[in-house]
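Revision sheet: structure tokens.
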Amino acid sequence: MSAEATAFGDGPLSRAVALVHTLVTVEALLLAAASPALAGLFLLGPDPSNLPLAAVAALPLGPALSAALYALHHRDRDLTDLRPARAYACGWRLNALPVLRLWTPLLAWLTVIAFTLTHFSASGLPGWWAALLAAIGVSSLLWGAHALVLTSLFTFRARDTARLAAYFLLRHGRATLAAASLLVLAAGLTALLTEALPALLAAPLLLSLLYGSRRVIAETQEDFTA
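Predicted:
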């Protein structure tokens, strides 16, 4: 075995340890940044009447998730100089306001849908409306996943990001399907185990989202950036 192959940072074990270090650091920073949201959601409970308050409490989640995506995407390939905390702070500083411009209306829209569905029996609407609203809600979540990736990694105007996210929703079906799979996984972990588990696994879930969105990221870089 050559000296180059055994040098620090060249072997698979070194890369695995570096990845774990990055994931653990980003996870800890994400939980710290999102702690006001997580605490608010925990205290509110699952009562449908709390949906508007839950949406307000969830506002800090947008910048926290965006900073994590930024840090994971820009993780240093030089394993002797890993600084995920600095990348996370940079991502939060750059993306907090741009993300909130899309995250806030998305939360408001999803709150309207969820409130309508939880009070559907009193709405007087035909039953097929419930299925339609649920489909719109899921589509909105998938659009939000694309928008979150685009806002975290690129600098576009909010309306341009919204259009690109809608464009990629059908343009790259595999990326959309990957995002849907992660949403199903997070929902399943919440329903079957505990609502805390998706939060504790947020970093690897976001890394999976980045991997599933690699074609979206590549096309954006090639066709929509200077």
